C-alpha cells in the first residue's frame, strides 16, 4: 500500500463569497467542528488508526488465512472408490468393489507446512509496512491541523492589532489629527481579516476530516492543541525503520521462495497406496483382499523446472532488495539536506525574526499613537512585521513536513 499525503496552504487568499455568507459558513463549520470533539495526542491518534484501519484488518485476515492453511500441509490424494460388475470370473454376473488411498512420502508434508509458515510471516511483514505508511499519514495530518490552528492564532493577533489601530485612527480623525482615509483603510483591513477568519475555519474543518479519514473513525477527533507546533524528530539508529522494514520484507520473500522450491522438489518423490477389495466369484460371496502400490512421477521434470523458476525468483528478490536500499539511501540524503535547510531557516525566525517582528509592532504602535509616525509609515512597518510572522508560520510548517518525511521516508515496494 502506498500512501502519499501532500497539502498546500495559501495564506490570506481572496474569498469571493459575500461576507454575510462567509459568516454563516464559519458558524456552521465551527459548530460542526466543535461538536463532541475528542482531543487526543499524536500517539493516541496513531494507536487508533492502527486499530481501526481497514487495510490493517485485511492484513490480519491474510495472516489468519495463511496460519489456517498450515493445517492443510498434509495432502493425501482423494480416496478412490471403484465398482466393477459383469462376467469377469465366469459366465455368471459377479460384483467387485474396491477402495484405494495414496499418501505422500518423504518431506512433502513438512515442506508444505514450512511454506505456509513462511507465507504467514510474509503477511506479517506486509502488514508492518502498511502500519508504517499509516503512521506517516496520521503524523502529517496531525501536524497539518496544528498548523491550521497556528494560522488561526496569527489571524486573531492581526485582528487585535488592526482593531486597536482602527480605534486610534478614529480618535485621530475626531481630533482632526488625520483624515478619514485612515479610518476607511483600517475598517477595510479589519473586514478583510474577518473574511480570512472564515476561510481559515473552513480550512481547519478540512484538516480535521483528513485526520479523521486516516484514523477511520466517526468521532470528531482533533489534535491536542497543547502539543508543541514544532515536530520532534527522533534521531535514527544505525539502520532506519524504513530500511529494516524493506530488508525484512524482501528477505522474507526470499524465504518463501526457498520453501516453495523445496516443496516442488519434494513432489518428485513417489506416493504409496493401500487398498481393499471385496467381490463375488460365480455369484458366491464374499471374497476379500488387499492391495498396495506406488505412484512414481515418471515426468517429475515438471516439478524440477518449477523449482528452478522459483530459485530465479530468489535472485530477483535479492536484486529488488539491493535496488530499494539504494533508492532509500539516496532519498534519505535528499531528505536530510532539505531538513537541514528548513532547520536553519526556522532557527533564524526563532532566534531573531520573531523578536524583530514583535519589536517593530510594539514600537510602531507607540510611535503612531504619539504622532511620531505618519499613517503610511505605520502601515509599512506593520506589514513588514506581519510578513515576518507569516514567514515564521510557513517556516515551521516546512520544517515539520521535512522532519516527518525524514522520519518516514517513502518505501518503494516494487
From TrEMBL:
Record's keyword terms, sorted: Cell outer membrane, Coiled coil, Membrane, Signal, Transmembrane, Transmembrane beta strand
Kindly give the PANTHER family that the UniProt entry links to this protein: OUTER MEMBRANE PROTEIN TOLC
- InterPro entries documented for this protein: TolC-like
Task: From the UniProt record, list the coiled-coil ranges.
Answer: 105-135, 183-210
Is Membrane tagged as a keyword?
A: yes
Q: Where in the cell is it found?
A: Cell outer membrane
Nucleotide-binding among keywords: no
Signal sequence bounds: 1-36
| Natural source organism | Flavobacterium quisquiliarum
Please report the name of this protein according to its UniProt entry: TolC family protein
Q: Cite the SUPFAM superfamilies for this sequence.
A: Outer membrane efflux proteins (OEP)
